[in-house]
Every structure is written in C-alpha cells, then in structure tokens.
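Homework help board

Subject: predicted structure for assignment chain

Our instructor gave us this sequence and asked us to write out the predicted structure in token form, then describe one feature. I got the tokens but I'm not sure how to describe them. Can anyone check?
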Amino acid sequence: MKRLTIINARVPGEDTLQTLHIAGEHFVATQHGAAETLDFAGALVLPGLLETHIHLDKACIIDRCHQQDGTLAEAIRETARAKADFTEEDVYQRGARVLEQAIAQGTTRMRTHIEIDPVVGLKGFRAIRRLQTEYAWAMDLQLCVFPQEGMLNNPGTEELLCEALASGADLLGGCPYTDSDPAGQIRRLFALAQRYDVDIDFHLDFDLAPDNRLIDCVIDETQGANWGGRVTVGHVTKLSILTRDKLHELGQKLAGAGVQVTALPATDLFLTARDRFALQPRGVAPLDELDRCGVVCSLSTNNIANPFTPFGDASLVRQANLFANVRQLGTQVDLLRCLSWISSQSAKLLRLTDYGLVPGCLADMVVFDVERADQIVAQIAPPIAGFKRGRQTFSRPQATLYRP
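My token output:
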C-alpha cells in the first residue's frame, strides 16, 4: 500500500500549517510504516473540485455550427444538426479533450449529461462510458442520460433511456420544455427514476418569462415520490426575475422538498435576455438567496465551445468568480460561499459520503498558491497540483518573469 505524508499544508479553517497522511486511496489519522513525504511549503489544499453539470458529448463543436442569433432555439437546432454526424469515436475524442482540461483545473468528480434520442442513439453514452473507465485515474464520472430533443413527442426515446439505465447510466435527466406536455415529461421521468432507483437532474425554466413555470411541478412530484435530496434543477433562470419575498417563499419550498439548484452562469448569461437591449437582465439563478433559505446549491460549467456556450476552459474557479461578479458578491464570506458551490455544497448535491480532507475521505485534493481560500475565487487562482486517490495527477509550474 502506497503511503504519503504531506507537510506544511495550509487547510481552510486551521490557523497553523497541517500535516496530512494518506494510505492507499484515503486520508488516515496517522501514518504507520515508511511513507514518501511532500512539502507543500504553505500552499493551500482543498478537496477536489466538483463539476455537477456539463455536456461532454456535445463539447467542442462550435466550428461545425452556424451561429447567428445566439438564442436557445438556435443552439438546440444547430446542435441537433451537428449531432446527426456524431460517431462514438468523435464524442470520445472531444470529451477526452474537455476532461483533460478539467483535470488540470482541479476537478476530480464530474456529472455529465448525455443526450439520448433515436438520431444519436447510444453513441454518446457508449463513448462517455469509455471515458469513465479510461480516465478513472483522475476523474470519477457520473453519467446522466436525458432527452434533449423531447421524450413524449419523440417515439423511441424512452426505450433508449431505459436501455442506457439498464446498461449502467447513473441517473436520469430531463428537458421538459422540449415537449408539448412539459409536466407530462416530468411525471414520466419521476416514474422511471423510481423504477430504476436513480436520481433526477432537470434542465428547467430556462427563460425570463414569468409564466409557464415548471419548478412547482418538480417540487410536487419530488414530495409525492419522497425523492427529496435526489432531485436537482439546473438553469432555472426564471428565478432571477422574482422579488426577494417571492424568491424566499419558493426557496423555502425547495429546501423543504429537498430539490437542489445548479446555476450555469456562462451559458445563462450568453443565451438569456437577447430580446432586451437597455437594462438587460443578468438572468442567473440567485444561489446566494436560495442558499440562505437552506437550498443545496452548486455552480457548474454546462457547455464548452458549442452554440450554447462558445467558449470555456473547464475552470470551475472561473465560474465561481463569474457568479460572484454577476451577483455582486465580494466579501470574504461571500467568496467562500461561491467556493462552496464548486466544492462542499456540490458534494452534498452529488450525495458524496467520502468528500473532504479528514480521515476516511478519498484522498482527492487540489493545491493553490494562496494564503486564504477566498483568494482562489477573487484571483481566479490556477491550481498548481492535483491528486486523485492519493496519486498526483497534474502539476502547473509557476510563470517565470524575464526581467531586462
């Protein structure tokens, strides 16, 4: 069993430099037997960062798409057109490119959504399953299959979703706004989730219109199925137009039902409010207010280099900084909250029981050259090293200045 002792590590919440012990894949209280020693020289250590919502299967296709309006409808349409030419190897190669970016940005676990429909079939699912196996040395991948092109209106989709769930998919996603009966899709997905005993993660309420809100239906179905803590809603940009009183009222209902919320600031800022010019709304779910209501929240990337989000580098720290700017969060306390939405709170959302730096937790960690954890978000600090199950997965040398 490999043993590793880390000395002079700065750990959030501790006033003095700490020593961390690793035996095999886990942190342990004390070291028994000979161990390799690494000196972190005062660098700050966090548990690995957590990506709760990304689309590996349709990443890096922006050069194949014709983008003009930048709307959600265009993004769905152009991605569907490009998807017709996807092959398993194509999805694998593009997904691997993003995975390697994410690893070097300090991410150690990831929930990726995978489109399932009669056009693409299970190509994307099979490709991402290969990635799940071949990149397990640095990343735990959780596979969420979902019907981007609709489900009730798209015959054959439900059967493919069931085939994927029976073949090892970890959970079920939803995209209710793509069906003529959105509430019907929600109800059907809850029935499938109960049949296969899996969690659900919805793309939901992705606009700034006050009507046709579906989050109430998700709350009702969650309570009816007793699925609290197993349901997440992503985007929910409609929440950004609520008054504080109305938002807190809804936040208390979400917390009571155990419905979790993921904000996707890069995509949501890029796609929403394109029909406005003066006083254009920000259109990002207000996690800071929901967090105060007791809602489990996370921040995530969503898309990289496709019509939904034409840019990105898989940096969760950058997403946390972006959200802090959008929501005008600048105190140390607020920046730490932003950091929690890509780390400890995301661990709750993913229902992880082995996350942290204490004995018994998996030895997944990321190292930053800062003195305080809030500086990671404030400075968009790049990680300088990462570890997965006690094994180092990457390092990033510091920049060198060449003075005259």
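Reply (TA_rk): Your tokens look well-formed. For the description, you could write something like this. The first strand starts at residue 3 and ends at 9. That's the kind of observation they're looking for.
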